[in-house]
Each structure stands twice: as structure tokens, then as C-alpha cells.
UniProtKB/TrEMBL annotation:
The keyword Lipid metabolism applies. SUPFAM superfamilies: alpha/beta-Hydrolases. It holds the Pfam family PETase. PROSITE patterns: TAT (PS51318). This is Alpha/beta hydrolase family protein. Residues 113-256 form the PET hydrolase/cutinase-like domain. Keywords: Hydrolase, Lipid degradation, Lipid metabolism. InterPro entries: AB_hydrolase_fold (IPR029058), PET_hydrolase/cutinase-like (IPR041127), TAT_signal (IPR006311). GO terms for molecular function: hydrolase activity. It comes from Streptomyces milbemycinicus.
Amino acid sequence: MSVRRRTLLGLGVAAATGGGMSLLGSSAAAGTLSTPRMSSPRQAPTAQFAIGVRQFNWSRGNRQLTTKVFYPAAGTPGGNPIPNAPIAGGVFPIAEWSHGMGCNSDCYSSQTHDLASAGFICPAPSFSDNTNIGSVYNGNWSKDVSEVLTRTLTLNNTAGDPFAGHIDTRAGVGVSGHSMGGMTTHGLLTTWPDNRIVAAVPVACVDMGNPAGLAAKVLFIHGSNDGTCDINSARAAYNELRAPKAFLTHVGADHGQYLVPDYRYYAQTKNTFLDWFRWSLYGDTAARDRLQSDATSNGTSWQAALT
């Protein structure tokens, strides 16, 4: 794919309302690479967890990477994340989330909280230049994500850290994000690859380059009436990738309304999103087998090549 075929996203978009999300996200480059080794397939947790959150003030060179890490916590499920709550018993894979334009790690609470409650450790960085589309196309956001992944994984072997021994460092990692965050996610599969990635969900993205050949399962989510990120660009990106891959289209939806819990077909977003990570990071084949039913409704269409 040539660079000129990429579709630049428009910037005249308002912030999304409800569900703690914003509209635009960005792409960037990768950092330290290592090859993941899949752990034995296992069933992902079936019960919901309470949610904990820790904040880290990391950096990459002169770029500040304030990151909130949402995680499964001990205690009663439901309610808001509890700062520094004890982590639940178990070993959990990493599924990262990248926010959109003008936003931060709290904007997409529906997605970050859903991941933590379902049994994933979800680092969510706040990009310091969160309105700079140039940082999408020069790779800074993707590189920031790779740094955040490295810092999060390191906690597993940090003596005395509450996460020590609780992070699945063998399963590989998942990445996801919306709009500029979706572009960041696709950038990590293409122009700025990170070999640790085995699962990715770019939401409302545009094509960021040629596939780098990562062994990653990739789910695209998009609204058919997205006036900000052209769905045809995302479809071109989908077509270039090898299987396993899937494309969930919300028919008639705009740039991000399907990420808001009160949207009529939000369940199709949530269930497909979570089961994609359950399959990819836990090796849960029952989650894989649910994907088509997860995605199917009167307001969606589903295209997939899972083998």
C-alpha cells in the first residue's frame, strides 16, 4: 500500500457524549520487541471482577506517558474503579486501550472498565499531545504504546510490586483504541510493528500502512456513516491482513456512537470486543465460537476469516 492511499481523518468532529468516551484517536510507533509464546488455551474468567486502578507517571524520552492501569481487583464486582485496590487472585493478560483526540485515559471508561472487569489488565495511556494529528503519522503514539506495554509487563517481575506474578507475560499482548487511537493500533501492526502483539482491535481507524506480518488476530469495528474516518480506508486495511481477522460494521452509525452503552447495539460492540480478546489472549475457543452471534443484530453486519 502506498502512503498516498491513506485517508487523512477530518478534524471537525465534536467530542462524544456519554459512556466516558471521546471521538478521535491517534497512531504511533513501537518500542522493544519480543516474540510472545502463547500459554496453554484456557477458559477466560466467566465471573465479573471488581475494578482497581493504579496511576503511573512514565515517560519515553521527553514524552510524558501518564498511564492509568485498570485491572481485576479483589472485592465485590460493580461500582467505580478503586485506586490501588488489591489485585484479584490469578494471572491476567494485558489488553491496552488508546484514547481519541482531546481526551485522556478516563474518556473511554466503558471500554477500559469492561476489559478489567472481564479479567484483563488494561493500561490506558494519556497522550500528552492529544490533539496533534501529526503524532499519529510520525509514529509517536504507537511508540508510546509500546513503551507503556514494556513498562506494564516489567511490573510482573518487579519485587514487591502488587502486580508481581499476576501478569501473563507468555500470552502476548492486546492493543485497541478508537479513531486516532485506532490508527495508533493499526500503526502497531504496520509501520511501527511490535512483535509482542497477538490481538488488536482498531476502532474507527484509517489505513496506516502495509501489514508487517505480525501473528495477530485483528478485529475492526466501524460505523458505516462515519464522516471522520472513512470506512473504505479501514476496509482496505482489513483486506490487506491475513486471517484471523474480522470486521464488525454498525450500519448507519457515525464515528463513535456504538461505543456508548446506551446505544441500541452497544451489546454487539462490547461482546464482540471482549470475546475477541478472550479468544486471542486466553486461547478461549468458546469465546471464538460466540463471535458471530455476539456481532449479529438488525443494526450490524459481520465479515470474518477466523482460520
